[in-house]
Every structure is written in structure tokens, then in C-alpha cells.
Amino acid sequence: MAYLWFKTFHLIGIVVWFAGLFYIVRLFVYHAEAEEKPEPAKTILKQQYEIMEKRLFNIITTPGMVVTAAMAIAILFTEPDVLKSPWLHFKLLLVAVLIGYHFYCGRIMKQLAAGTSTWKSEQFRILNEVPTVLLLAIILLAVFKQSLPVNSAVASLVALTLVIVAIYKIYAKIRQQNESKMDLATKSEV
């Protein structure tokens, strides 16, 4: 019975953690775009994004990571034989990468607050897709375990990455066209 409780809270932790990871980098996008705004909007937006980022990271994202990790450790104590499984070793490697990503986001948050970040909104949009690919790989490993069809899994990850890149390119082009139209409309009004 303890295993089921640990697994339940592990899954809840994962949902909370990923929600935070997906949203925090989206806030970084808006934070970076605030740099292009005229004053006083620039200062007001940056201050608001800093508050939102800190609260999200400290109150939601980090506790989600802690609950996820604590419950994973508890699960391993109830099922220690699973530590012998190669699929779990690879899953734990991906989780380690995800934890690194988490703390890297914390570092970026501090850089944005200090005004030392050199990242542009387009770069943050790409960074925002990293947890998507990691989530897919981790879930594939957790569901299929040792029977994971490696060729299909790799093909799925590559396809997902290509779709993300294609969507990003299309979005960037549409956004650039819309900005050009707005610039022309502004110039014609003057």
C-alpha cells in the first residue's frame, strides 16, 4: 500500500514540477521582450515578471521537484530490485539532466533580475521545449521499461524535435510578418 501512495505523490509532483518548468521559461520570454518596451512599461513589466518568476520557481516548481525526488526515493525503498534495471538507469540519467535544467532556469532567473542575461526571447522559446522532449523520453521509459522499442522511441523523439523546430520557424516567420505590418501601419499613421 505504501508503494501506491508514494507513486501517487510522485506523479502529482511530476505534474507540478513540469507545469512550473513549462511556465517559467515562458515568463523568461516575456521578460526578455519587456526589454524592448518603452519606459515606464519596461520597468513595470520587468518588476512584475521578476515577482512571478520567483514565486513560480520557489513556491511551485522547486517544491514539485522535491516531492518528485522524495517520492521516487521512497518508491525505490519499497521496490529496491528495480535498481538493477537498465531502463531505470537511463531514466535517472534523464532526470539528472532535468534537474540540471531546473537549476539552470534558476540561474537564468537571477540573471534576468540582475539585468545580465544576454538571451533573446527567441532563444528562450527554444529552451522552453527542452522539458517537452525530456518528458516524452522519461514517460516512454517509465511505461515500456525494458520492453521499450528503442527504434520507435528514438524516431518519436526525433520527429517531435523536428516538429517543434518547424513550428518555431513558422511562428517566427508569422511573427516577423506581423511586426512588419505593424511597423508599416505605424509609419503610415505618422
UniProtKB/TrEMBL annotation:
Name of protein: Protoporphyrinogen IX oxidase
UniProt cofactor note: Binds 1 heme b (iron(II)-protoporphyrin IX) group per subunit.
InterPro entries: HemJ-like
Pfam families: UPF0093
Family to which this protein belongs: Belongs to the HemJ family.
Keywords: Cell membrane, Heme, Iron, Membrane, Metal-binding, Oxidoreductase, Transmembrane, Transmembrane helix
Catalytic activity of the protein: protoporphyrinogen IX + 3 A = protoporphyrin IX + 3 AH2
Organism: Floridaenema fluviatile BLCC-F154
Keyword Metal-binding found: yes
Function: Catalyzes the oxidation of protoporphyrinogen IX to protoporphyrin IX.
Complexes and interactors: Homodimer.
Record bears the keyword Acetylation: no
Topology of this chain in the membrane: Multi-pass membrane protein
Positions that bind heme: H10, K91
EC numbers, comma separated: 1.3.99.-
Pathway named in the protein's UniProt entry: Porphyrin-containing compound metabolism; protoporphyrin-IX biosynthesis; protoporphyrin-IX from protoporphyrinogen-IX: step 1/1
Protein's cellular compartments: Cell membrane
